């Protein structure tokens, strides 16, 4: 298909960069008073532009060009009560015009030699320790834009499809995390409801009492660091809600100064009996300011355990990144995807994205 003409507007880049640069360079960007309180300000800016050759239905006319704009600013305050206890308050705000979420993360953390307790809106530990289900040179877990570059033809979620963030999102909760002992660290989380509506929950209409537990083990192996992760998630859901009620995942990652190899697997059981599974594997190489990676991801759904696959979505992506300086990088990624919908129709797509990231 022929690509259509397009215009790339850089105005969002200018004002977004100005916000982050102002925060990062202000006198209060990192200040410490005499009582031991430290305040740190910063942000993340990502600008991505893409072209895609997407399969179309007879009545569709999909624009092959698009742009993504992600901006986050954060404030992190920490005070030390004594030699073994500290209190930390963290808030990360979304400043994108298209986003309906303002405080993406907002929590209080009390920590010390006996571990950490966190209360509020916090990304699940399962996502934090897995970091990259498959190593990626340029895009991160939060930049999983495949589902936005290509029209989804299945009911299988692509974003956050390999970690528990897919289930808990931005829901408020409480968690406890042990210190890392002998390389092992465990975290247990509880959320009264899987809803951003705070207050009393009607369990006959909303999922409630979500619990997740994740264990992370680190060890030195073959001149690098081996990281093993395993997690379990469960929520009580009413019969009228077909969402996930139980899930588990596992991930493995090995890295040294120049190489990184890893993969992850996620299995979910929905309340209506449908089973969903997803896995990913990838390899990354770093040399100087350059990074290169290749990863493959596959996901599918079945009407029940052991039943034939109803629909699936596969994709392979190659990425490269060049680090211009501290916190500033440019990158390029290309992909090919194949989806099969519930009617067993196959949809093929390919494309690429280029962009810039600033982390202050």
Description:
The protein has four helices and 17 strands. β10 and β11 form a beta hairpin. It is mostly beta strands and 360 residues long. The two termini are 40 Å apart. The chain has a 16-stranded antiparallel β-barrel.
Proportion of helical residues: under 10%
What integer value in Å does the Rg equal?
21 Å
Q: What proportion strand?
A: over 45%
- Please provide the ordered H/E string of secondary-structure elements: HEEEEEEHHHEEEEEEEEEEE
Average of the residue pLDDT scores: 82
Poorly predicted runs are: 1-28
**Main sheet: strand order:** 2-3-4-5-6-7-8-9-10-11-12-13-14-15-16-17
Topology:
Elements: H1 11-25, E1 30-32, E2 37-54, E3 65-80, E4 85-94, E5 103-112, E6 115-121, H2 125-130, H3 146-149, H4 165-168, E7 173-177, E8 184-193, E9 208-221, E10 224-236, E11 244-255, E12 259-270, E13 275-287, E14 290-302, E15 309-325, E16 328-340, E17 346-359
Antiparallel strand pairs: 1-2, 2-3, 2-17, 3-4, 4-5, 5-6, 6-7, 7-8, 8-9, 9-10, 10-11, 11-12, 12-13, 13-14, 14-15, 15-16, 16-17
């Amino acid at each position: 298909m022929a690509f259509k003409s397009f215009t790339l507007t850089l105005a969002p880049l200018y004002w977004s960069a100005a916000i982050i640069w102002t925060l990062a360079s202000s006198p209060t960007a990192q200040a410490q008073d005499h009582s031991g309180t430290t305040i740190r300000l910063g942000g993340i800016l990502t600008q991505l532009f893409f072209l895609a050759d997407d399969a179309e239905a007879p009545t569709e006319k999909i624009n092959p060009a698009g742009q993504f704009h992600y901006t986050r600013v954060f404030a992190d305050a920490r005070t030390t009560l004594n030699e073994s206890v500290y209190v930390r308050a963290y808030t990360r705000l979304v400043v994108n015009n298209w986003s309906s979420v303002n405080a993406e993360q907002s929590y209080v953390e009390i920590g010390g030699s006996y571990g950490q307790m966190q209360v509020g809106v916090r990304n699940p530990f399962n996502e934090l320790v897995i970091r990259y289900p498959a190593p990626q040179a340029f895009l991160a877990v939060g930049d999983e834009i495949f589902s936005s570059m290509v029209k989804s033809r299945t009911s299988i979620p692509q974003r956050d499809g390999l970690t528990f963030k897919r289930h808990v999102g931005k829901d408020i909760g409480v968690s406890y995390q042990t210190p890392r002992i002998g390389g092992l660290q465990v975290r247990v989380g509880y959320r009264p409801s899987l809803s951003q509506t705070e207050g009393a929950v009607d369990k006959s209409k909303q999922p409630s009492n979500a619990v997740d537990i994740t264990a992370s083990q680190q060890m030195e192996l073959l001149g690098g660091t081996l990281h093993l992760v395993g997690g379990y998630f469960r929520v009580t859901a009413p019969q009228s809600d077909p969402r996930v009620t139980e899930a588990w995942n596992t991930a493995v990652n090995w890295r040294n100064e120049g190489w990184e190899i890893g993969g992850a697997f996620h299995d979910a059981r929905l309340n209506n009996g449908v089973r969903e599974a997803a896995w990913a594997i990838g390899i990354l190489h770093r040399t100087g300011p350059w990074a290169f990676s290749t990863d493959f991801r596959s996901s599918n759904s079945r009407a029940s355990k052991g039943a034939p696959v109803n629909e699936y979505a596969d994709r392979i992506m190659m990425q490269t990144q060049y680090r211009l300086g501290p916190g500033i990088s440019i990158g390029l990624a290309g992909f090919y995807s194949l989806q099969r919908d519930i009617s067993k129709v196959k949809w093929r797509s390919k494309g690429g994205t280029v962009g810039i990231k600033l982390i202050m």
